[in-house]
Structure prediction request, 97 residues.
Amino acid sequence: MNEINELISQRAALLMELGQLNGLIAGSFFVREMNGKPRFCLSMVWGGKQRQTYVAAKHADAVRQGVGQHERALEILCELGKINLKLIKKGLGDTNV
Prediction:
């Protein structure tokens, strides 16, 4: 497989993986102790302002996974950008290839 086909194949796989990240949450998940008990929190930017919200213990794992999915989505977007730039430099200005 030539390099262009390999890049196109890599891009397709990344786009497919990105489409599977349907629970992503943009924010930071952390645990803070209050009165000797753990409290789960999520820090997010809403309307240009940083906000923290309490997360019930029963939702902590789902929120933690959502934040992890967001981090993976950012990694994928970075990789997609690199691949698209390589394709453009190889003369494939139309990234819909």
Observations:
- The radius of gyration is 19 Å.
